[in-house]
Amino acid sequence: MSTIVRLPNQQDATLPKRSYLNSEYGLKSWLLTGDHKRIAILYLISITFFFFLGGAFAGLIRLELLTPMPDLVASDTYNKLFTMHGIIMVFLFLVPSVPATIGNFVLPIMLGARDLAFPKINLLSWYLYIVAGIFTVSALVLGGVDTGWTFTTPLSTHYLNTHVITAAMGVFIAGFSSIFTGLNFIVTTHRMRAPGMTWFRIPLFVWSHYAASILMVLGTPVLAITLVLVALERLFGIGVFDPSKGGDPLLFQHLFWFYSHPAVYIMILPGMGVISEVISTFSRKRVFGYTAVAFSSVAIAVFGFFVWAHHMFIMGVSNYSALVFSLLTMLVAVPSAIKIFNWAATLYKGSITFETPMLYAFGFMGLFTIGGLTGVFLGSLGMDIHLTETYFIVAHFHFVMVGGMLMAYLAGVHFWWPKITGRMYPEGLSKLAAVVTFIGFILTFFPQFILGYLGMPRRYHAYPPEFQVLNVLSTAGATVLGIGYLLPMIYMTWSLKYGAIAGSNPWQATGLEWQIQSPPPTENFLEIPVVDHEAYDYEWLANKTQHEVTTVG
Amino acid sequence: MDSQTVAIRQQAEIEHHEHEHPPYLRHHFETVEQQKEAVSFGMWLFLLTEIMFFGGLFMAYLLYRNWYYDAFVSASNTLGIGLGTTNTAVLILSSFTMAMGVYCAEMRNKRGLLISLSATILLGLVFLGIKTIEYHEKYTEHHIPGASFSIEDFTHPTDKRDVALAPDMAQHAQIFFFLYFAMTGMHALHMIIGISILFALLYKASKDAYTKGHTSTIDNFGLYWHFVDIVWIFLFPLLYLISRHPLH
Amino acid sequence: MSHPTLEDAHAEPHIVGPKIYGLILLALLCLTALTTGIAFVNLGVFSPIVALAIATIKMVLVILFFMHVKYSSRLVKLTVGAGFFTFLVLITMTLSDYISRAWGLW
Prior knowledge:
Largest sheet of chain A: none
Helix content of chain A: 55-70%
Distance between the termini of chain A: 30 Å
Structural class of chain C: mainly alpha
Number of strands of chain C: 0
Oligomer: heterotrimer
Strand content of chain A: under 5%
Largest interface: B-C, 49 and 49 residues
C-alpha cells in the first residue's frame, strides 16, 4: 500500500538535542510549567487515566447486561455505574480530550505564537481538572452517586442519599477548567496570530477550537449555577426545584440542558477540526470549501444555543415550545452536514493514502454521519416520543461521541504523535487497532439502535428475555472495543523508546507546526514566521521542501 | 577597547533592552500593546462567563415572580427601601471612585490612585455592612427560608397597605427569600473577592506598580468592579421595588 | 486581507477624564432616585418595564463610560453584545416554554 510518510534516514537520525522535553528537568519543572506543550502532556496522562476509569464502568455495565435478570449488581449499584460512566466520560474525558491535549499543544504553533495568551491560567486549568477528578473519585470511593450524569431533579435534590454534592462539585470545578481553556484559546486566536496569518489562513483546526471555545465560555457558567442551585436545594430544601413547595423541576432541566446541549458541540467541534487536518493531509489536497467549513463551525456554535429543549420533549414543555425547538434542531444539523460534504469533496480526486489517522478519519465520517442522522430522527417530535429514554438515544449519542469524537481524538493523537514525541508508532499495529476499534464499535452500538427501536429502556439493568441476543452482541462488541483501545496504550508507550525517528514533517503536511523540529523547542519558533501562503497550500510546501536542507539532531 | 568602554556599552544595551522589554512584558508577547489588549480581552471574556453565571439565577427569579407574583410583592415589601437605595448609591459611588482610580493610574498620580482605591474599599465595606444589617433583619423577622420561616407576616400583615395572603401563597414567599439570599449572597461573595483584591492592589500601588505606565491591572480590575455594580443595578429594582405603591 | 478586520479597530488611546465620570455619577444617582420614587406610583403592567428600562439605561452608562466601551475596539463591543445576546436567548427561549404552557394543547 502506498504511503506518504517520509522519515529521515534512520541510520544517522537522532532526536533534536534541545526540545521542550529536555529543556528543564525535575518534577517541579513539569508541575509549575507555563509551557503549553508540557501542560498538554500533563493533560494527556490524566485524561487517559480517566478514560480507562470511565471505560471500566462501561465494562461493568455491559457485563450486567449480558443477562436479562438483574443478577450482577443491585439496582442502586447499577445506577451508580452508569452515572459514574457518564460523568467521567462527559466531563473528564470528552470535553477536555482534544482541546486540552492536542489543542493546547498545537494551537499556538499553528498560529505562529510562542505560547497561549495566558500560560499561568492554562496551568490553572489543569490543576482545576485534577481537583475535579479528585472530587469525582471521592464521590465514587465514598459510595457513588446514582442520579445519572444529568442530575435530574427532584430525584437528585430530594429522593437520594448518595454523594450528589461531591459529584456536583467535581463537575462544577471541571467546568471552570473548561472555561479557562476556552478563554485562553479565544484570546490567543484573536491576538497572537503571526504576521500574515489572517483569519482565513488559519487552519480549520483553529476555527473549530475557536467555535468550541465560544461555547465553553458562554455555556458552562450556566451549568455551574445550576449545580449550585442543586446543592443549595439539597442543603436547605428551599423548593426551587421541588413541586411540593411550588418549584418547577423543569426549571432545572432548562438550565441544565442550556449548557449540556452546547456541550455536545464543545465535544465534537474540536474533533471535527482534527478531521479537517487529517483528511487534507492524507488526500494531499486543500480542504474543499475552506470558508464554508470555517463558517459552519461558528454556525454550529451559534445554533447550538437554540435547541436545548429537544432533550425535554416528553418532560412537560408546552407543545408550541416543543415545536419551535424541533424546527431549530433540524436547522442545527445543516452545518454539520455541510462539513461532511466538504470533507467528502476534499477526498474526491485527491491522492488518498491509508495511514492510521486516515483510517480513524474514515471511521469518523461514516459513524458520525449515522449518529448525526439518527439525531435528526430524534429531533422530530413524533419519533422522539417513542424513541426517547430508550437504547436508541444511547446508540445515537455513542455513535456521535465514540464513533465520532473518540475516533477523531485517536486520529489526532496518532497524527500529532510524531510532532509531540519525535517518534513514529508502529504502523502495522496501529492500523490493526483502528480496524479492531471500528469493528468493535459497530458490534457494540449498532444492536443498541435496534434495541431502542424495539423499546428497551435506557438505564435499566433488567430487560425482557427477547432482547438478550442483541445485548450479548453488544457486550461482545464492547470487549473487542476494549482491546482496540488498549492496543494504542501499548504500542504508543513502546514507541517512546523504540519508535522510528520522525523528523519534522513525516506526513509532509502543511501547517506551521510541521515546519519546526519534532519535538518542538520550548519557544516553538526561533524567529516568529511571516506567513504568506494560504492554509493547506501543498504547492507552497513542495516549493519549500525542494529548497530546504533538513538536519535532524 | 578598554574595560570601561565595554562596561558603558553594556549598560547602554541593558537600558535599551529594558526600554523595549519592560519587566512586566511577558516573553510570549511581542509588544506591550499586544499584551495589554490580550489581557483586557481576557477580562471581558471572563465577565461574559459572569453574565451567564448570574443569568441562571435571574431566570429562576423571572419564573417564580411570574408564578407567585403576590407572594413576591409582599415579600419584597419587607425589604428596607431606605437601606436598599442607600446601598445602590454607595455602590455607584464606589464605581465612580474606581473609575477615578483608573484615571489616576493613567495620569501617573500615585497619591490619587491610593485615595481612589482606599475610597473604593471603604465604600465596598459600607455596602457589605449594610447588607449584614439587612440580613440580620431578615433573621430576626423569621424571613429566612427553611425551618425557621414564619408565614405570619404574610397571612396577617400588620401594615394596612399590605394584602393578606392565603397560607399556600404565603409559603411561596420562601422562594422569594431564597432567591434574595442566593442572588445578593452571590453578589456579596463577588464583592468580598473584589475587596480582597483591592487590598492587594492598594499595597502594590503604594510601591508604584501602577503609576509607571503599566495600568493594565487597575484597568481590568475596574472592569470587574463595574460589572459587580451592574449586577446590583438590576438586583435592586427586581428585589426591592417590585410594587411599592399603595395597593388598591 | 484588504478589508479591515476586527483587529484593525484598536482602542483609541483615549483617557476618560474626571468631568465625564462626574457627569455619569450624577446621572446614575438621579436615575437611582427616579427608580426608587417611581416604584411608589401605580403604573400597572408598566411598572416592571419602567424599572427594567431605568436599570438598563444605568447599565449602558456604566458600560460605555466607566468601562470605556465607547472608546474601545469593535472586538470589545462585539464581545459585550455576544454576552447579552446569549443571556437574552436563555431568558426568552426558556420563558417561551412557560408562557406558552398556558395556551393549552393546540
